[in-house]
Design a protein that fits this description.
Elements: E1 4-5, H1 11-20, H2 26-37, H3 51-60, E2 61-62, E3 66-73, E4 79-85, E5 90-97, E6 102-106, E7 109-111, H4 120-124, E8 126-129, H5 132-146, E9 154-157, H6 167-178, E10 190-194, H7 198-207, E11 211-215, H8 221-227, H9 236-244, E12 254-260, H10 268-277, E13 283-289, H11 303-315, E14 319-322, H12 337-343
Parallel strand pairs: 1-2, 6-9, 9-10, 10-11, 11-12, 12-13, 13-14
Antiparallel strand pairs: 3-4, 4-5, 5-6, 7-8
Bound molecules: iron/sulfur cluster.
Iron/sulfur cluster (SF4) binds next to helix 4.
Length: 358
């Protein structure tokens, strides 16, 4: 029999599965605790389980859905983990330590089909969706490796892939991340970033309390169609309607990410368009001056242009924060990833004032 990826199971599924092995249902709670609270490396560590059950687990399950192949660390402490999957594919996660928090940026697909023009992952094309186990195991493995120095405080689904294009597995993984008997992250500390696949947005609002970030990057359809082909399927009017109708918890806001590309989307007129677009949405904006990477034609705008863009937003009473890039020299995924990942998540001491909480 083919071994099962045990971290694919939700708690009820785990309970049903242990019973097929002749074990009592409460064993599932023990296993769940070993997997996510104790973050075990081997079934031998589970001395509260009988030797015969441990043998069944040893031969009948895959405990680690991926393995660390390489770690690069940048001067600013950002760490990029390259993971090898069981089929030989590779994905990345990026750990971004800060003074007050430590954010892990998690991948949801191998490659990506959506082809955003400013993104290195998009240029790789799409290979496959990740399983639930492969998503949550990025967290388990990084926490284990970095555990001496860092404790992960926040998660962002912003690595390789579009999370809403792998909806079912991502929702299951979010369940494990936010389950108090699982990885036990507060919903205030978990963010899903999407380019705006509108049907998925409507489902997500019903299915998960996760924080929402939208990759916007343009204020009109003509430009957004060029930068982000997904806009041809879900144009701005539909996307913004979904944002307005998104069932935000009280005091939460949607984060809008806007990569500033010199001479493309960074004019004061486009800033005013952005103000108009966000009318009626509880929003905050992260402005990300483009971080050049090999093969990209875009340039970084001057500081004056970035500040002028921000000023228009602030004058309209919008929260707009300029985010510096992180981990440049280790090529943190699409080059913007670490900045975006660090930006969507407020430090813990800002929770009382920042509307990322409910
Ligand atoms: S930005 Fe996100 S959705 Fe767009 S190509 Fe890159 S990984 Fe895919």
């Amino acid at each position: 029999m083919k071994p099962v990826l045990i971290k694919n199971f939700s708690p009820p599924e785990l309970e049903a599965w242990v019973q097929t092995l002749g074990e009592r249902p409460f064993r599932a709670r023990q296993l769940y605790r070993h997997l996510y609270v104790r973050n075990i490396s081997s079934w031998d560590e589970c001395t509260d389980l009988s030797r015969s059950f441990r043998n069944q687990l040893e031969y009948g399950t895959v405990l680690n859905a991926l393995s660390i192949n390489k770690i690069d660390e940048a001067g600013d402490g950002t760490r990029k983990y390259l993971f090898r999957l069981h089929d030989g594919n590779f994905i990345e996660s990026v750990l971004i330590p800060d003074e007050s928090r430590c954010t892990l940026c998690v991948s949801s697909q191998v490659g990506c089909a959506l082809g955003c023009r400013f993104c290195m992952t998009g240029a790789l094309g799409f290979k496959r969706n990740l399983d639930t186990a492969e998503i949550v195991d990025q967290i388990c493995q990084v926490q284990k490796e970095a555990g001496q120095r860092y404790r992960i405080t926040s998660l962002v689904l912003m690595g390789m892939g579009e999370p809403l294009a792998n909806y079912d597995q991502v929702i299951r993984a979010l369940g494990i991340m936010m389950d108090q008997n699982g990885l036990a992250f507060s919903h205030r500390r978990v963010t899903l970033s999407t380019v705006g696949m509108v049907p998925g947005l409507y489902r997500l609002g019903q299915d998960s309390p996760v924080n929402l970030a939208i990759s916007l990057h343009a204020t009109d359809d003509a430009l957004r169609n060029k930068l982000m082909p997904v806009n041809r399927t879900y144009p701005l009017t539909e996307l913004m309607r979904a944002c307005r109708e998104y069932p935000l918890a009280p005091r939460k806001r949607i984060t809008f990410e806007y990569i500033l590309l010199d001479g493309v989307n960074d004019s004061p007129k486009q800033a005013r368009e952005l103000v108009r677009l966000l009318n009626g949405v509880r929003a905050k904006i992260n402005l990300l001056p483009f971080n050049p990477h090999p093969g990209s034609d875009f340039r970084t705008p001057s500081e004056e242009k970035v500040l002028a863009f921000q000023e228009v937003l602030q004058k309209a009473q919008l929260t707009a924060i300029i985010r510096k890039s992180r981990g440049n020299e280790i090529g943190a995924a699409c080059g913007q990833l670490a900045a975006r990942a660090a930006a969507v998540d407020p430090p813990p001491d800002s929770l009382d004032t920042d509307a990322q909480e409910d």
